Amino acid sequence: MTNARALEIIERYDRTMNAAESRVIERMNKALDDAYRRSEEEFLKAYKKHSGNLDLLPQQRRLLIMDEISQYFGLSNRAQNRLREDFEELIEGAFTDGQSLASDLAGAIANESISQFASVPIDAVAAQARDGVRRLSRHSEDFQNKASAIIELHLALGSGAQKTARELRRELGITKGKAEQIARTESMSSLATASKKAYADSGIELVQVTATLDSRVCPFCASRNMKAYRARDLIFPFHPSDRCVLMPFKLEWLESGLIDVDFSKNFRKKTIAKLAESGQKPNNGITPFERAANKTKPPESIWTP
Predict the structure, then answer these.
(1) Which residues of 157-194 are buried (b: 16+ CB within 10 A; e: fewer)?
(2) DSSP class of residue 298?
(3) How far apart are CA 197 and CA 193, in angstroms?
(4) What torsion, rounded to 10 degrees, do the Cα atoms 24, 175, 214, 217 define?
(5) What is the pLDDT of residue 206?
(6) DSSP tally for the chain: helices H, then strands E
(7) What's the burial of 262, exposed, middle or buried (CB within 10 Å: 0-12/13-18/19+)?
(8) pTM to 2 decimals?
């Protein structure tokens, strides 16, 4: 089989992952919308109650309003528990898919079998889910802090309750975007961890980065697309919401013609061309997650088509 067949497999798994992520994101957005709806209702009540009191300074009005509505911002404990369960389901599913993906790719490229895990590491899944919800909660708290600043500004400007509410809704949209990023990043991280473990358990030490060919391809992924690396050298995913996949790679596969070199070259060129359509070019430097891990230089590739 050629790399083209492997790409078809990756696209099939990508659709499955997107569907699973979208279900969790929909529930996250509902939880955030519910929290915001309560806070907006209470804000409008408090605004009406205190804005006409001319004996209060703007700072005093803001403090009174925020004191009355602060409890309504953020996710409830019940919502956080439900999201933790959703995250666990998403991450466990991604881990299982990562194992299956690794097996399907090795079979498609070189007709090799991949070691199968006895079970999913439940404790690790639960810990990753808790971390994801904690990060989501931090963004919710950040929304509360920014909401306070928005209310203070618009009270000082005399903007009115409805304009202030519109600004709060805009900020909520930013928070929901960050929540979606968390879900997709946790999912792909679990998929990649499982794939790398499956390769390592089967004696496959090298991987070939495969980027997604569409308008969302980023400079880092375009730079590394189709290049082969030692799996242990990679901090992967490369960045939040990364949708790259690691294919198994062996130099003996390359030498025996199992790796479709022409496909790899053309796919890499197409990805760079797609990136150029948005006025960007490949970034050969360290990725955001490598920088977060205090790496000072990118990993050295073993092979470039």
Answers:
(1) eeeebeebbebbeebbeebbebbbbbbbbbbbbbbbbb
(2) P
(3) 6
(4) -120
(5) 97
(6) 9, 3
(7) exposed
(8) 0.85
